[in-house]
Write a structure and sequence with these properties.
The complex is a heterodimer of chains A (about 375) and B (about 325).
Chain A: E1 2-6, H1 12-38, H2 42-54, H3 57-82, H4 90-108, H5 112-115, H6 121-154, H7 158-178, H8 219-238, H9 240-250, H10 252-257, H11 262-288, H12 299-309, H13 314-336, H14 346-366, E2 367-371
Antiparallel strand pairs in A: 1-2
Helix pairs in contact in A: 1-14, 2-13, 3-8, 3-9, 3-11, 3-12, 3-13, 4-6, 4-7, 4-11, 4-12, 6-7, 6-11, 8-9, 9-11, 12-13, 13-14
Chain B: H1 2-31, H2 39-61, H3 70-98, H4 103-128, E1 135-137, H5 139-142, H6 153-171, H7 173-183, H8 185-190, H9 195-221, E2 225-227, H10 234-244, H11 249-268, H12 273-280, H13 282-297
Antiparallel strand pairs in B: 1-2
Helix pairs in contact in B: 1-6, 1-9, 1-10, 1-11, 2-3, 2-4, 2-9, 2-10, 3-4, 3-9, 6-7, 6-11, 7-9, 10-11, 10-13
Classes of the chains: A mainly alpha (about 375), B mainly alpha (about 325).
């Protein structure tokens, strides 16, 4: 009847062809769903989505920024995934990174040195921004280290551990935003942080804001994440540590027989993952110049899917991030037009459909179906 | 003190029940080796499906000036809810069991889809009803579920399901075979157990139970009110509860009421704004501690099912 067997290996171009076909099919299904639910012409909807994401130069920049952040988080989770360490804690790791940055910006703004109007802001930022960066990296690294430590010592389930750590981070940030009893109060009403160091009359104005390069504040994050992409590509593909990650991922036993210290690799890789997440958090808080509990906005989870659907290939992740950002924020644009009458949650439905198709199509890449003529034998 | 308890305990139970439904469903699923991170999404879909059923039935009767039939007012939302969560479970099973996709990724995608689905159709219904506030109320329907002050029959059903699930897993042949599938599918397969069928049935039943949790939340906790995002992160709390109870539905009955009590307490106590958020941290930290202690002690019956999160393919040994 029907027999399933594992493929020996599919040429890369064929695999990408299957994925491309799956995405096309998903877009068709999305259009059909859009028509059924909204009775709108899908071409109008897709055109609105395109307008919303690439319609003006400002929108292009915002879209690039969103792609860059999603790409950054996806890159950050990749080393751990390659090791088959199911870290779904990127959400929390990015958030604590952003939190560390925001705390540095906030408290520095209260220090006499940084308030001194006689020292130029460039000098102050030259001191402060590296501190913010280090704080974020350390915070992210801590959030990555804890699950790895318990996993390597006592085989604690890392998926559940990192999931809980997300909420620990989220509640900590909510607490720090809302709590008034601190020495300094974030803002008069105590529930939102607002733009940090934004009082133009003070010497601390603009303190800790990431510099605008080339007339846009989104260029610097793009450059940083671009560098991370290249670094990670080389690290995973050509470095000894990258090779160790791949071996541990294939088989922990093989790794330990061949003299790789598995526990050390697990901890080192997770600390790296966490630090990269912290870096993204630094870029997020430094570019947005504020801290909210929705700063990461579920992108830590989306990144897990982006990383996985690109088969941990950094170049593939650029395109996957583009697709996801286009669908999510394009659909939000559609939702914001009252004449189309949708709400923004439609974006999640469309993204979900695309993800299901991409998840499903992996089967046809990894396995092949054989129809045997002899029906009596069966399987 | 007595009066406080009398008003407190029923409300704690009501807050706990959605978590109990969710965790019982997730325990069944995980015992078959499927780590279904789509539970939050499934609970959303279950809730909104029930809401859609209740909405149209209420429009057809109350809207047209006719009396509601009690049995229909209960059955229609319930069947819609079961159907919606069944379909979500089917999607999860098809992707992870038949197509052997990665369970974490599938689950996260399902949660994204489910939450979006719930809020989208919730928003559409609110628009359809020309409601002035961003929520929907089912004043007539929810009276058939309970009075909103005490846990109604659906709560007792939830406790019943948890007890049955507990007994099923522990004492019946099928339950033991199910656990075998979750621990080591290859061995179970060799012993003649149909791994695929067990995974499918456990996940589908688990999804439907979790979906009922969503319906319970709308009909009793929120007393027949649907508001977008109202369900919050209860789905993740349900998953935390699974670990907290070390995969035992019977303990989950008490643990869910404890969690529910924590939720209610945070509303009762007049804490400063920020401290409340710190207080909400407690369930997650406690769960983390339990997860760590369990892995330290390495008692087999407390550990997660061994093949949790792994797809099974017979020819891959």
């Amino acid at each position: 009847m029907l027999h399933i067997s594992k493929r020996a290996g599919l040429p890369a171009w064929k695999a990408w062809l299957i994925r491309g076909a799956a995405i096309l099919l998903a877009l068709v299904v999305c259009s059909v769903v859009t028509v059924i639910v909204t009775k709108l012409n899908p071409i109008v909807v897709f055109k609105t989505m395109f307008d919303g994401t690439f319609g003006s130069s400002r929108r292009v920049w915002v879209t690039v920024y969103r792609i860059v952040i999603l790409l950054g988080i996806s890159l950050a989770v990749t080393p751990a995934f390659k090791m088959r360490f199911w870290n779904i804690g990127a959400e929390g790791q990015v958030l604590v990174g952003a939190f560390a940055t925001a705390i540095c910006m906030f408290y520095a703004g209260k220090m006499p040195f940084f308030q001194n109007p006689n020292i130029s802001i460039a000098v102050k930022n030259l001191i402060l921004i590296p501190c913010m960066l280090i704080a974020s990296l350390l915070a992210g690294a801590l959030w990555g280290f804890l699950p790895a430590f318990f996993k390597s010592r006592w085989n604690t389930n890392e998926t559940l551990f990192t999931l809980m750590m997300n909420y620990v981070a989220l509640q900590l940030v909510k607490f720090m935003i809302a709590y008034r009893g601190f020495k300094y109060i974030w803002s008069p009403n105590g529930t939102v942080v607002g733009i940090l160091n934004s009082d133009a009359t003070l010497g601390s104005y603009g303190l800790g804001w990431l510099p605008e390069v080339g007339g846009s504040r989104y260029l610097l994050p793009a450059a940083v994440i671009g560098a991370v992409t290249i670094f990670l590509y080389v690290y995973l593909k050509y470095s000894k540590q990258g090779y160790e990650i791949a071996v541990v991922g294939e088989s922990e036993r093989t790794a330990s027989y061949s003299g790789i210290k598995v526990n050390r690799v697990i901890i080192r890789t997770m600390v790296l993952s966490g630090m990269l997440c912290g870096l993204v958090g630094f870029l997020l808080a430094g570019t947005d110049r504020t801290l909210t509990d929705t700063l990461v906005d579920g992108r830590g989870y989306t990144a897990v899917m982006v990383s996985w659907m690109s088969k941990f290939n950094p170049i593939g992740m650029i395109f996957s991030s583009l697709l996801i950002v286009f669908m999510q924020y394009g659909a939000k644009e559609v939702a914001s037009r009252p004449e189309l009458g949708l709400n923004h949650n439609f974006a999640d439905i469309l993204t979900g459909i695309i993800l299901f198709f991409i998840i499903g199509c992996e089967f046809f890449i990894n396995y092949q179906l054989q129809f045997s003529r002899n029906k009596k034998r069966g399987v | 003190m007595w009066e406080f308890l009398v008003s407190f305990i029923p409300r704690a139970v009501m807050q706990g029940m959605p978590l109990l439904y969710g965790s019982t469903g997730e325990i069944l699923t995980e015992k078959a080796g499927n780590l279904n991170l789509g539970i939050p999404g499934i609970m959303y879909v279950g809730a909104i499906s029930g809401v859609i059923g209740a909405f149209f039935y209420e429009q057809a009767t109350v809207g047209a000036g006719q009396p509601m039939v009690g049995i229909l007012a209960v059955l229609i939302p319930m069947l819609c809810c079961l159907l919606g969560s069944f379909l979500m479970g089917l999607l999860y099973c098809f992707l992870t069991v038949t197509l052997r996709a990665n369970q974490n990724v599938t689950g996260l995608a399902m949660t994204m889809f489910g939450v979006g689905f719930g809020n989208f159709f919730g928003g559409s219904l609110i628009k359809l009803a020309h409601s002035e506030v961003p929520s929907l109320t089912f004043a007539s329907t929810c009276n058939f579920f309970g009075d909103g002050k005490h846990p109604g029959w659906l709560a007792y059903l939830g406790i019943g399901i948890a007890i049955v699930a507990s007994l099923f897993l522990r004492f019946t042949r099928k339950g033991m075979q199910l656990r075998a599938v979750g621990e080591n599918p290859a061995t179970a397969d060799a012993a003649g157990i149909n791994v695929t069928r067990y995974k499918y049935v456990a996940t589908l039943v688990g999804s439907m139970i979790a979906g009922l949790g969503g319906l319970y939340y709308v009909m009793e906790c929120a007393h027949g009110t649907w508001a977008n995002e109202g369900f919050g992160d209860r789905g993740w709390l349900a998953i935390a509860l699974v670990i907290f109870t070390t995969w035992r539905p019977s303990i989950s009955i008490f643990a869910s009421i404890l969690f529910g009590g924590l939720i209610i307490l945070s509303e009762h106590l007049s804490l400063p704004l920020g401290v409340k958020e710190l207080y909400k941290l407690a369930p997650y930290v406690v769960t983390l501690v339990v997860l760590i202690i369990v892995s330290l002690r390495k008692k087999r019956e407390n550990l997660p099912p061994q093949s949790l999160g792994l797809a099974y393919f017979r020819e891959e040994r």
